[in-house]
Automatic annotation (TrEMBL):
Transmembrane residue ranges: 42-62
Lineage of source species: Eukaryota, Viridiplantae, Streptophyta, Embryophyta, Tracheophyta
Organism: Vicia faba (Broad bean)
Start-end of Acidic residues biased regions: 493-502
Protein name per Swiss-Prot or TrEMBL: O-fucosyltransferase family protein
PANTHER family: O-FUCOSYLTRANSFERASE FAMILY PROTEIN, OS02G0726500 PROTEIN-RELATED
Gene Ontology MF term list: glycosyltransferase activity
Length: 508
């Protein structure tokens, strides 16, 4: 129990092997006078060791893909060339050196929520593990959320890349060491949800002592557990690094994403519309603008069926006027037209099934006939693999959203926010951040004749001039973290400074 757990320890076998082979070479030099048969034996052993050693050194230099394979066994050594042929798109990279630190224990985490909420949480948990000097066990993904996706971490993210690319910051293991694993299997595991929006001092003062006491602590909620602001620059940069480079989708998802992007690019510019007009969203939010009475009833039934959706009695009109409803497809069509977005542009709908189907999509389709979705661009056989894995579908939409010429989310959920932030990171690519409260007010005025089209369009454009995903200061509201800008929507600390710094969103 008391042995110091030193991260970097498994390296010793490597170093040992290297030393051993050198010793053998030394011995070989000193044993020229021994019997020739024994000499041959030494020769064979020494040569084998040296060859193996060279092989390892070369393989480590090939990049992160290789590190874990080498650790698993020698055979990869001899299939090196063919394997490289299969993976032409991954540039060779030198592995960062491992960070050596005294391990304070193990952190297990179970993420909750949809893909993008979990993604942000994984970044936070890496940062927490790093600053507590603990070992992180690969996060468990939520399989019981509304989306009920059975995918494991490695079904969505490139697991080996995640582990090796962060090894200069924190040790990440696929599972607990055997002894601790057995203990956990026997039911001994300290589990708790950390307090939301905490800063690192909470983790240092409250969580670290628990980890030291119990050796393993399991955090069973991960959404918004780390404050947006007031963290050191190193922590913020690490959150970004996990997000933008350590978390890479599996090659299979990346490949399909590239395919969709290429199909779109062949036909010119494209806009990704994250049309969050899906049944779960409407039932949860109680937004029923434009729904018929059967639909209102169905959505209400669904809301009552989910006990953890706390809000049951909802006034849709008030909520919409407060800007808290996702735009309807009809409102979205008006907004896009008001922005003078070319009616010939391809619009990729990044969403699940649109509630109300083609009836609700009619006005959008009339204004923007080039509407596409992954289901229309790809063969069913190509998507079959992803079909029952909503997170993998979401990952595909995520990749396409990043590459689009314009990204328009109709609601600010987690996907909208993380894509917004990522696009800022990629050079402030255009993201139209709709001010829904103002927009629905303008739409109502236009629809009831109080404004003509030109007035409406002008008002929409003018009020959104500084909401195009450019450089802005992140809104900070001490003591009201829920109302602040989400760190991941504008990871300022990680962005290239730009000249026309716009601080308009930084005032309360
Ligand atoms: C973590 O390790 C570093 C040295 O690598 C040390 O300076 C720091 O105080 C340690 N922090 C904790 C919380 O153990
Ligand atoms: C997390 O763990 C605590 C303490 O064991 C438990 O009360 C709570 O229900 C768990 N929450 C979740 C979301 O599993
Ligand atoms: C997906 O799930 C549905 C029902 O849950 C099932 O009928 C279908 O065969 C599944 N599809 C695949 C590709 O696994
Ligand atoms: C984290 O993830 C997504 C994309 O990787 C990005 O949009 C978001 O802003 C990122 N957050 C940070 C911390 O950089």
């Amino acid at each position: 129990m008391k042995e110091p757990l030193l991260w970097g320890r498994e390296d010793k076998s490597w170093e040992g092997l290297m030393r051993m082979s050198k010793n053998k070479v030394e011995k070989l030099k000193n044993t020229v006078t021994v019997r020739s048969s024994r000499m041959n034996l030494w020769m064979i052993r020494a040569t084998t060791s040296v060859i193996l050693w060279i092989c390892i050194v070369q393989l480590t230099a090939f990049g992160d893909m290789w590190g874990p394979r080498v650790l698993k066994g020698w055979p990869s050594c001899f299939t090196q060339e063919s394997a490289i042929m299969e993976l032409p798109s991954i540039p060779p990279r030198i592995l960062p050196p491992k960070r050596v630190y005294k391990n304070n224990g193990y952190l297990m985490v179970s993420c909750n929520g949809g893909l993008n909420q979990m993604r942000a949480a994984i970044c936070d948990m890496v940062a927490i593990a790093r600053y507590l000097n603990v070992t992180l066990i690969v996060p468990e993904l939520d399989k019981a959320s509304f989306w009920a996706d059975p995918s494991e971490f490695q079904d969505i993210f490139d697991l080996d890349h995640f582990i090796t690319s962060l090894r200069d910051e924190v040790r990440i293991l696929k599972e607990l060491p055997t002894r601790l694993k057995q203990k956990v299997e026997n039911g001994f595991l300290y589990t708790m949800p950390p307090i939301s929006w905490s800063d690192m001092s909470y983790y240092k003062n409250q969580i670290l002592p628990l980890i030291q006491k119990y050796k393993v602590v399991h955090l069973n909620r991960t959404d918004a557990r780390l404050a947006n602001n007031g963290q050191s620059l190193e922590i913020q940069k690490l959150r970004c690094r996990v997000n933008f480079s350590a978390l890479r989708f599996t090659p299979q998802i990346e490949e399909l994403g590239r395919k969709v992007i290429n199909l779109l690019k062949q036909n010119g510019p494209f806009l990704v519309l994250h049309l969050r007009y899906e049944m779960d969203m409407l039932a949860f939010s109680g937004c029923t603008q434009g729904c018929n009475s059967d639909e209102v009833e169905e959505l209400t039934r669904m809301r009552y069926a989910y006990p953890w959706w706390k809000e049951k009695i909802i006034n849709s009109d008030l909520k919409r006027k407060d800007g808290l409803c996702p735009l309807t497809p009809e409102e979205t069509a008006l907004a896009l037209r008001a922005f003078d977005i070319d009616q010939n542009i391809q619009i990729y709908i990044a969403a699940g099934e649109i509630y109300g189907g083609s009836r609700r999509m009619a006005s959008l389709a009339k204004n923007y006939p080039k509407l596409v979705r992954k289901e229309t661009l790809l063969e069913p056989s190509e998507l079959q693999f992803f079909q029952n894995h909503s997170s993998q579908m979401a990952a595909l939409d995520y990749l396409v959203s990043l590459e689009s010429d314009i990204f328009v989310p109709t609601y600010d959920g987690n996907m909208a926010k993380v894509v917004e932030g990522h696009r800022r990171y990629l050079g402030f690519k255009k993201t139209i951040l709709l001010n829904r409260k103002l927009l629905v007010e303008l739409i109502d005025q236009y629809n009831n004749g109080a404004m003509n089209w030109d007035e409406f369009s002008f008002a929409v454009k003018q009020s959104h001039a500084d909401r195009m995903g450019g450089a802005t200061k992140r809104l900070v509201i001490p003591d009201r973290p829920k109302e602040e800008d989400f760190f991941y929507a504008n990871p300022e600390e990680c962005l290239e400074p730009s000249e026309d710094d716009d601080t308009s969103r930084s005032t309360v």
